[in-house]
Predict the structure.
Amino acid sequence: MTATTPSFPSRLPQVGTTIFSTMSALAQQHQAVNLGQGFPDFGCDPRLLHAVTNAMHAGHNQYAPMPGIAALRQAVSDKMLTLYGRRYNADSEITVTAGATQGILTAILACTQPGDEVIVLDPCYDSYVPNIELAGATAVRVPLTPGSFAPDFAKIAAALTPRTRLLIINTPHNPSATVWSDAQMRQLQELLAPTNVLLLSDEVYEHMVFDGQQHQSAARFAGLAARAFIVSSFGKTYHVTGWKVGTIAAPAALMAEFRKVHQFNVFSVNTPMQAALASYMADPAPYLELPAFYQRKRDLFLHGLQATRLQPLPTRGTYFQCVDISAVTDLPEADFCRWLVQEIGVAAIPLSAFYGDGFDQQVVRFCFAKEDATLLAALERLKKL
C-alpha cells in the first residue's frame, strides 16, 4: 500500500515565500551586508540577560498566569500612566503576549466575524492582511498619501461601511518611518467618534521617535483609548526580538474578549523572560534613552548616504530609512533590490512588498538597527552607486 498525504484547500492560498526571506537568502548567498531584515545585529543589556538567569535559578520555569506575570503587567501599567497619562488596570486591561504579532492576530480573531471588514493603511506590516483572512474577515486597503505617507482621512472615511469592525494604524510606521502627529490622532478620534469601529494601534516602535517629537499613543486620546487595542513590543524596545514578548492594553470589555482567544491560542508566555522584564523595567533609562540611541544611528547612516545618489526620505521614527532610487535606476523596486544585493553587496527591501497591489514608487527600505561597523561597511559599498 502506498501512503498518501491528504490534500486540502489552503487557508492562505496567496501566501508564498516573502520578500524578506528571499532577500535574506540572497544576502547570505552573496555575502552582502543585510540591511533588509528589521532587527538588531547587536546584543541587549547584559543586566537583562542576568535577570533571566536569576529568574530561572529562582524557579520561574513553569507556566505563567494566562494574562502574564502580575509584576510585569503592573510595570507596563505604571509606564503607560507616566508616559501617556492613562492608567490601565494591570489585572483586567493588560495582557502579556508571545510577541506583538501574536497580539495582533489574537485581537483580530477576538473582535471580527466572517463578513466583517477591517481597514488597513497601505503600505503596511505584512502580517495584518493574512491575519484578517484567517479570521474570515475582509481586508479593505486604503493607501496612505504617496510621498508623505500621511493618512488620507477622506479616503479612510469613504472606506467606512456598516460592515467595518476594525481599523489598524501603525505609528511610528513600518515601512515609511513616519510618525502620526497629535493633530492626526485627534482627526482620527473625531472620525471614529460616531461609529462603532474598533481600533488596533500598533505601537511597537513607540520608543523610537526622533528630533524631540513625542510618540502620540492612542492611550493619550480618550476617544481612541476607549475603542483601542494598543500593541507594544519588548523585543523592539530592549533589542531582544527573538524573545517574542509583547503586550496588549485595552479597556476591560475588549480585553475580556481578547483573553478568551489568547487562553486557547497561547495560554501563557515565556515565564523567566517575563520575570526578568518585570525587574528590568524598574529602571526607565533603557527606554527613555532609546530615541537618542537610534537617532545617532539614523544620523550616521544619513551622513553616509550623502556620498551616494540615493535620496533619503525623512525618518521621524522606527529604525528604518527609506530612500528614493530614481536617480540611480529606472528598475522596479524589487528588481533593484535583487541587483543591489548581487552587484553592490547590500540588502534592502522594496516598499512595493508592503502594498497589496505592489504599488511601485521607486523607494526601498534599509534598517539601521545595526552595529556602526555594519552601517559603515554598507555605506562604503553604497558609494559605488
Remarks:
- The radius of gyration is 21 Å.
- The mean pLDDT is 97.
- The chain is about 40% helix and 15% strand.
